[in-house]
């Protein structure tokens, strides 16, 4: 497992006003079985109130992905959420603050975050995203590095990064591959919130399903069918497709771009402002995250 | 013409219960002219009952593709089928058995099979697939290496390889280029049977047409129009597009993956089972080939 | 700015029968502001009667693109047209004649033409095409190298190059990236005229809008929103996406192909014939340019 060395520590102060949910990793990712052999698993992200991609989610994700190395029992993993409004929200912006996360090493957490994105591409297990709520920022980056994605009617996708002043590192280049440069540019540059039907039309997700139940059935059927097949064939297919993934150098270039941007004073200030006004996980703010960031940073009187 | 050296000989025995159609290559590919100059040709695959991609088809295809080298008379070739149910089915699995094909050298035939796939990309003639029946496995691999594909309402596309335990070598990486990694992963990993309308929606084919006649007219019009133009411009356009094809190394990697997989005992056994239950070309089995393979290998009591 | 050295001078004579519009560059590109800060600009192409991509347009485009280097005021530029029938037509074919353009150096102009295509990809400004008329040849090449494209109901796209006997250098490989090799081959090889709705369906444009006003509002909203964001983030996003653009070598290969083709006697003759019958900018001929070229060169008695 390659660990990225990020040397990013944004120098501003911030009053941490939100409740810290503590170290309850054991419950962050809830595992269940899709088929009898449990070779197809369902992993449900549970980090109320908005499935913020915080230290606990990062650590739990890493623990789970590491557990999938060097084993042949698990063939397929579906990631869903137990929150009807959010598949997952952004990375906890406190990771980029000087105070950081109490009791945690922020640099290590960010390295683990990027290592997780890496593991999604390289782990010889088939990863499926099942989304019927919002997937912003970090959530979307993880989805874009899974093998496939299916949406329900309430799914929304988006990256607020351009509005904040950074880039969707880890997701942007995958999105270009999936939907082409023109549409990726539109959604990324405008920090757009993209509906499930539009995401399916352009190829951001494989398909959209009319209800949450229809989505669940479709995903379970596909996961269970794939899990019937020889693991060697699944691994070879994933490896073959990976040959056309954006090269590692592109990801590293994006990471360098991200770090350069996040170190700019104005952009560090933007992050701080968003943390304050959103309280980092207020549901009303996060429901229209991208639009609210635009409104707060650029359109409201200071 | 590069010939791939495959050293694959699956070691199991099999009773060859099906009728061997003999060496009737002359009738396998029926040629006709689309325009007066015959610079646009139609080639109709005819190998009843399911257009199995067997030794005769491989040899006839190679003879035809070789005839197109170093000539300037033929600008466009449309490949269709005289079988309303099948554009073409899979490769004759007997090629991978120890007995092989009576009177033929299996290794040479497999080399020729892959050489044909190569020739579709490199021959300076425009190849168009016109599909209004099933295109499974080998059939789909050939289509994916043509310059464009048009479908009628009865077209279906699919690769049973993952269910058998191998990969769609020669087609998989082209499919990733055409429809993106997410959808290619879904269809390949689940050994899906994909309808004409879904194939058009995602880009597997250029477009779908409401009837067989409408399909025929559309393809004839396009082929005849292209054939009007200077051959040098057609060749230059094909060469330019070919610069973005998956690199040859990717194809060779996939071929190595295929050979590794096909040598595994369980997967060799799967091939043998399918040969026995399908009688290699029973129409009822091949009509729902992928689903029947899944049913027979994984869901029926042994 | 890299300047391409083209050594192309087609050797035929031609009576220049059309009115030469003169050196009125100042009015060729009309600039206006989309937002208050004018960080989002609108540039309207105005070269009646068909927005022929002639010496004046080439020079004005170059002057404008050069003005965007090394500055941070302009973040987004939208290119539209004041001609309801044409976004832009082809390159002035007189550039390829021996007489050339009176008072201008044809070779320099062609070099500038290709330099402009290059600048669209490399200039750290976001370029948006707003199209509600025809975009043929040169017009389409410029659009395909912008960051995104939006269409109104009257938009049409097409490249007549294959019918003439050359290739859509500068546009072809971008189109393959955007819509896949199969559809790009179809449209380029058949010199097709593609409607706005089909262009949106396949990804040639980002989306199609029901009226010119709806198109205008959509583009203004996106441009103004993007222009709110830190310029560093916009530049980084564009740079990240550019990593997946066709490599420069592919463009140079296409340019070499183009020059080889244009030097062939038959193809030089085709250019001459088209110049004569179209009077280079007759509206009735240019409205169905590709189809009229096909009709005139191949289907009418000489």
From TrEMBL, chains A, B, C:
Residues 1-26 form the signal peptide. InterPro entries: ClpP/crotonase-like_dom_sf (IPR029045), Enoyl-CoA_hydra/iso (IPR001753). One of its GO terms (biological process) is fatty acid beta-oxidation. SUPFAM superfamilies: ClpP/crotonase (SSF52096). The keyword Signal applies. Pfam families: ECH_1 (PF00378). CDD domains: crotonase-like. Keywords: Signal. This is Enoyl-CoA hydratase/isomerase. It comes from Trichoderma aggressivum f. europaeum.
């Amino acid at each position: 497992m390659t660990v990225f060395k990020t040397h990013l520590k944004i120098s501003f102060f911030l009053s941490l006003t939100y409740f810290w949910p503590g170290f309850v990793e054991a419950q962050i990712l809830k595992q269940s079985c899709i088929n009898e052999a449990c070779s197809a698993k369902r992993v449900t992200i549970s980090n109320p109130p908005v499935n913020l991609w915080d230290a606990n989610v990062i650590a739990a994700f890493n623990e789970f992905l590491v557990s999938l190395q060097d084993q042949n029992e698990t063939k397929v993993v579906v990631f869903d959420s137990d929150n009807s409004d959010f598949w997952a929200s952004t990375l906890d912006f406190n990771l980029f603050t000087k105070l950081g996360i109490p009791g945690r090493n922020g640099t290590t957490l960010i390295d683990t975050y990027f290592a997780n994105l890496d593991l999604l591409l390289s782990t010889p297990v088939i990863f499926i995203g099942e989304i019927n709520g919002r997937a912003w920022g970090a959530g979307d980056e993880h989805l874009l590095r899974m093998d496939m994605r299916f949406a329900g009617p309430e799914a929304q996708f988006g990256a607020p990064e351009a509005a904040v002043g950074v880039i969707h590192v880890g997701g942007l280049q995958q999105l270009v591959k999936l939907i082409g440069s023109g549409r990726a540019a539109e959604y990324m540059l405008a920090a757009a919130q993209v509906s499930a039907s539009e995401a399916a039309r352009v190829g951001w997700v494989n398909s959209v399903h009319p209800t949450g139940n229809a989505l669940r059935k479709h995903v379970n059927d596909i996961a269970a069918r794939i899990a019937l097949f020889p693991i060697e064939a699944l691994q070879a297919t994933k490896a073959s497709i990976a040959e056309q993934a954006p090269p590692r150098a592109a990801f590293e270039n994006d990471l360098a771009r991200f770090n350069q941007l996040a170190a700019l004073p104005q952009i560090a200030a933007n992050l701080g402002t968003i943390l304050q006004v959103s309280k980092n996980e207020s549901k009303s703010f996060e429901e229209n995250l991208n639009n609210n960031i635009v409104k707060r940073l650029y359109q409201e009187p200071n």
